[in-house]
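Appendix B. Extra example for self-study. Work through it before the problem class; the solution is given directly after the inputs so you can check yourself.
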Amino acid sequence: MASASAGSAAGSSLRRSRPRYGEAVIKGLLLAAALVSVATTVGIVASLLPPALRFFGEVGFGEFFGGTEWTPLFKPPSYGVLPLITATLTTTALAISVAVPIGLAAATYLSEYATPRTRKVLKPVLEVLAGIPTVVYGFFALTFFTPLLRDLWPGSGEGPEIFNGLSAGLIMGVMIVPTVASLSEDAMSAVPQSLRQGAYALGSTRRLVSIRVVLPAALSGIVAAIVLAISRAVGETMIVAIAAGLKPEFTLNPLQAMQTMTGYIAAAGEGDLPVASFDYTTIFAVGLLLFVLTFAMNFLSIRLVRKYREVYE
Amino acid sequence: MTTAPARHRTENPSLAGRFRPLEPLFKGMLLASLALAVLFLVVLLSYVVTEGWDRLDPRLWENFPSKLYPERAGAQSAIVGTIYVIALTGAFCVPIGVMTAIYLEEYADGSRWWNRMIELNIQNLAGVPSIVYGILGLGVIARGLDLGRTLLTASLTLSLLVLPVVIIAAREAIRAVPGSIRQASLALGATPWQTIARQVLPAAVPGIATGVILALSRAIGEAAPLLLLGAVTHITFNPSGITDSYTVLPIQIFNWTKQPEAEFHTLASAAIVILLFILLAMNSVAIWVRNRYQKRW
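Solution. Structure tokens for the complete assembly:
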């Protein structure tokens, strides 16, 4: 057989005796399917931009980013987005303060301490936490956790309001624990065994190896996990829509009711605002801000993960 | 050698003799964090079940939502709506997701910029907040394509939302099929597509099925995008076609949670138990498929 000269591009196909149109059509169909996801991104931008531009045509950037009052549906309206941003900041900071310590501790335990058997039992528990619908977390925050906080509130000062950022933020933190834990554990598991063995040979304890060797070596992956966690907290909707309230307040006090960016989009989108109305465009202006923020964070996170993959794989 | 045999079992090469109080303390803190997560899960589940227990009766699936009479209210339209939405979402996102995965794993040349862009784009989409997909559904699907706030719009939007999850799972399943299978098939004269359709895909089906079920269980629990797509409307009938208005379980739970009366919160708990039960059943199927059919190469 003299036809052994393999095609160069595919690497595995023999040189064809006749063109295979069917194969080309199939490849074209598959590529078309892959382009659906590109079209999704284009669609997101296309749905956000025109109404958002209409919004910014009438409301200047100065008023939007500098104003401390968000009352777009009142007369006269006020379009300062800062109250939505402070609420998002407050709930996100609370969520991160729960998710990062617990998630990192869980990841360290699973990666450095747990036997394969304990890992097999504990990992599904974290997966269950990740699988619970966010509306359930919201219900739990409003009807169980907030009353509990109000009952247990120490001292004579006023406790949290019925709707408050504290309860929403803390429960959101639990929801994000699996994100932090599983991404950080991936990064820690990617640290080569030889680094640990070197440290043990020098007399380090398991705690020192975890803190001084594994943690720094996995740092870019851990930072990626935290960035992604922040992005998820910023974008989470149901928990804050249920438990944080509907009142846009320019405050960082977590005991008050507050409305986040996502909370506003949900509340305004629920009502069927007429397409032609100016109120309708506020959803898209806030949505664009949310999209840009989370997009930047996701991008950063992906870059950081690639970095540690390049180093160790 | 002074090390006791028990020391070997701790697998810690450094514990040669001195007592180090920080070691157990550190380990204890790590374990306590995990215990906190487990405790949270136990409290959440037992709270929801005990709250909703009294209302977990046929009224819940035989009756329709009512804003005035909590004792008569049910969630039948939401349960039926959820089934419709998930069936349609699966029908849209599975073919496109699997085809994308095949393209990226079997055909795409990773050195081309457009293929790298497609990959990066999918990774980014996986992190876009779900409410932004709601805006996409509202602006492009409901109003741009003029499909309105219907079952079809909701399913298309949720399909796009879970598409990255399906793609990532399907890619992993396809990648797990060893290259030798492909080479053997090609060496026997099969075309690339024959190789994929007759060898690679059948071997990857269990992994793909597992990923698809997990993606759909995410779609079942999703409420945020549907808030923008008309699911909040008070619906007291079952949808009969894809252009009908609809509601789904998570949205019904949201509506009941918003009511101030405690009776509605009990109803919400009962509906949550049903929702969690559906999710549990789906995940069990996924685990069963994985254990029963997954091939080890």
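Self-check: The radius of gyration of chain B is 25 Å. If your reasoning did not lead you there, revisit section 3.
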